TrEMBL record:
Protein name, UniProt field: Carbonyl reductase (NADPH)
Xref: InterPro entries: NAD(P)-bd_dom_sf, SDR_enzymes, SDR_fam
GO MF annotations in UniProt: oxidoreductase activity, acting on the CH-OH group of donors, NAD or NADP as acceptor
Highest taxon of source: Eukaryota
Length: 258
């Protein structure tokens, strides 16, 4: 069995934290690199497992600085790049944090009357551009793990064009639809390097996402969602590269409609 290295962005809370937890429990992973802006107590607590390495103070919307820091971290002290077998782009947000006190308030910031250039720009920088530029920065590390290397982008059903029957959410929906295209492009371009790419909808999950303070009907637990995401990761391969999957809370991975 190859011992693998995984990298997860947005690892300090929510889905990213739980994905790190579950990866640490898997025998095939020898290292889990947890990328975040600032280390939370929950992430710090995972450090008792020496397989976890925290890389903090990474501002993924500052693309140039992130690329430099990650390239330095994963290459500078090594003769060969550290192989990355799994890169999970998880960091994401509905929009800029503008002090909304509820999800209702926040969602109304992306309607036809309220959407602003700043909110569109923010969502694209974070949800669309960051996964592209981080993949670019870590390409030699992914190549070093091929043909076992996988890139998983946490997308959303909200980025599915055929699923959009309720309108609104302009910045979030458009940035996730656009990252689906980024993922598809990476799948085509990286197939010659034998690196597989997949887009994953994690389901509707009760995390800190979107200022939802109290659980909404239909929201699932974060551990079920992370289990589904990692099941979907297992399904991604060089034959289906560029697929859009629903982790389905560990109850059987499903294909998503674009
Ligand atoms: N929850 C859902 O129902 C749901 C559904 C579909 C898709 N998703 C996707 O799942 C992913 C994880 O979301 P979640 O539910 O775990 O949400 P969450 O609890 O709000 O966590 C979001 C993560 O992204 C990071 N992040 C947010 N803004 C950032 C920024 N400007 N720069 C760097 N990092 C930033 C956060 O770090 P900080 O602590 O530093 O802010 C945190 O680690 C996202 O891509 C989201 O779009 C979630």
């Amino acid at each position: 069995m190859t011992l693998k290295n995984a990298v997860v962005t947005g690892a300090n809370r929510g889905l990213g934290l739980e994905i790190c937890k579950q990866l640490l429990e898997k025998k095939e992973y020898q290292r889990v690199f947890a990328i975040c802006r600032s280390t939370s107590p929950d992430l710090k607590a995972l450090e008792k497992d020496e397989k976890l390495q925290i890389i903090d103070n990474i501002q993924v919307m500052d693309h140039a600085d992130t690329a430099t820091r990650l390239t330095d971290y994963f290459q500078s002290t090594q003769l060969e790049p550290i192989p990355i077998h799994l890169l999970i782009h998880n960091a994401g947000a509905y929009g800029p944090s503008e002090g909304f006190s509820s999800f209702n308030e926040e969602r109304h910031s992306q309607g036809i009357a309220t959407i602003t250039p700043e909110r569109i720009r923010f969502a694209f920088e974070l949800n669309t551009a960051a996964p592209l530029f981080i993949t670019q920065a870590l390409l030699s590390n992914l190549r070093a793990a091929a043909p076992e290397a996988k890139v998983a982008i946490i997308s959303s059903a909200m980025g599915s064009i055929s699923n959009n029957t309720s309108g609104e959410h302009y910045a979030y929906r458009a940035s996730k639809a656009a990252v689906n295209m980024v993922g598809k492009g990476l799948a085509v371009d990286l197939s010659k390097d034998q690196i597989a790419v997949g887009l994953i909808h994690p389901g509707f999950v009760f995390t800190g996402f979107g200022n939802i303070k109290e659980r909404i009907e239909g929201q699932r637990d974060v551990d079920e969602s992370a289990k589904g995401v990692l099941d979907a990761v297992d399904c991604i391969n060089l034959n289906n590269t560029g697929c859009f999957l629903h982790g389905n809370y560990g109850e059987g991975v499903k294909l998503m409609e674009w």
